[in-house]
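Hi R.,

Here's the input for the 2-deoxy-2-amino glucitol-6-phosphate complex you asked about:
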Amino acid sequence: MCGIFGCLVKDKDVAPLILAGLKRLEYRGYDSCGEATIHEGKLFVKKGVGEIDKVHAELGLDDLPGEIGIGHTRWATHGAPTRENAHPHTDCEGKIAVVHNGIIENFLELRKELEAKGHVFKSKTDTEVVPHLIEEFMKEGLGFQEAVIEAVRKLRGSFALAIIYAGFEGMACVKMESPLVLGVGRDGIYVASDIPAFLPYTNVVIQLKDGDVAFIRPDGFRIYNFIKGREVKRKPRTIDWSADMAEREGYPHFMLKEIHEQPRCLKNTLRLDRRYLTMMADLISSAEEAFMVACGTSYHACLASSYAMSRLAKKAVHPVIASEFVENYGSFVGPRTVLLAVSQSGETADTLEAVRHARERGATILGVTNVLGSKLTRMARVYVCQQSGPEIGVAATKTYTAQLSVLTQLAVIMAERRGKIGHVEAEDLWDWIHKLPDLAESVIEVTEKDIIRLAEEHVGVEKFAFVGSGINLATALEGRLKLLEIAYAPSIATSSLDGVTAGCLGKGSTAIFVCPSSSPDRKRLLDEACMARDHGLNVIALAEEGDEEVKEASDEQLVLPVPPELPEVLSPLPFILPLQMFAYYVSVKRGLNPDKPRNLAKSVTVK
Ligand code: AGP
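And here is the predicted structure with 2-deoxy-2-amino glucitol-6-phosphate in place:
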């Protein structure tokens, strides 16, 4: 996730407006930034590494000349945070500048084709193929606008783009899966990843749709849709959000916004470069001893995927809470050990300590993180960036499901390469993995109303138990952690609720059972749910559509629109979603601020 801002304003140098717009988008990414403008038929570019204020202090981002310009604040996806990789990116002649948010899946093959035609690349980014492609089409004789359309037709993946060209008095903006909105003001037209970026200038908004290419000129704009192959009309709407609300896209809290972003983040995890997952899979497979280390939510993702790895790939990859690693396993770690560290931030002190120790003893370090350029990416031999974009809410949500998706893909690749699953099972698993973003979307949509009601009923409940067995012990642990973190509700998570514990919790407490029909322990879970009711607990069961058995064992059912055929190894992903929302709404109903839980840092970077 990066932030894009562009504008065309009559009789005004736009560089200061772009700078202000980027500042309002900084929460989307902040490892590097840059601007480009056009003035008297010339392209001007400034860019640098670091937060916007730092780069501005060094370069003076607001003194570029021109009434047309684009800017970008970056959250690295391809290529480390360096000046070369910062946006805008330009073509060979330095006449076309592009800023991009998203992932271009086929950039490697496009880059090879373009290099064969003599184009020289300066960065390691996927984005840089775009200015070179446009340049190439223009060399073949197309005008700028036609060249943009032909270029974007060749791209696969997700891309929001703002493009300027020294020979064109205007700007091209493209939307495909990544967000991009136009703001129509009295004196100018704005384009941004998010509405708040231009809200001080206009509240008239046009939401671009996938395939839209808007050509903005001083006298107005027109929108062409490259999927439909024709010009389209998009209706402007006037929004009445405050600047504060707009930053959260109208959501009252970042946490809720991030819960709703999960389908998009999951799609991003399906665009990862398979080569790195395959390298990881092979390194883990050939290890004498393999560990996953992490803290908090990331540890829960490891726990779930260790089940997936042993079930599918028949390989034990031990999940260890990072702070426990050195003391308990450190003495026999060696060159034949593989350590997979999972950390959203890539900076958690305990996780890095385990990595440091294992590295010193010659182990192979692998990493899964959300932050390219983090310490973990510098210490790992192979790492994968989960592409969730910055997570502002202290309680991890979208980064957890993205970790699950990445690690489950790794488990399937391991299973395939070790010959532990047949091609039919593998294809079936991949089909399901590709359905997960849509499944997540419908789970959130369908269950949210019921969860709001349930949360209201639970404002005063003091104690909770989360029960999930096998792979869904991780779901129970993560559901509990969320409630604890943001609603401060004393609660336990367990794979089996016995009579003693139920008795201790006592009447008036709530037990939430995670009951996918694929669970091999289902009968026991249902028996325990009945027992808990006998002890006076209120029992909520999370189950799939059409699950009649669950009804008899529980007081309330949260029915997820998930087909019962969903393989059990994938069930932690949809089943955590209602629990994230439950924690969020209980916190809100208790009058707390879920974005700012007390006594809690997003990740602990000091020991
Ligand atoms: C989860 O809601 C918390 N933010 C916390 O437990 C977190 O998962 C843990 O600190 C690990 O952080 P990391 O993934 O950045 O290493």
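One thing worth noting: The chain has a mean pLDDT of 94.

Cheers,
M.
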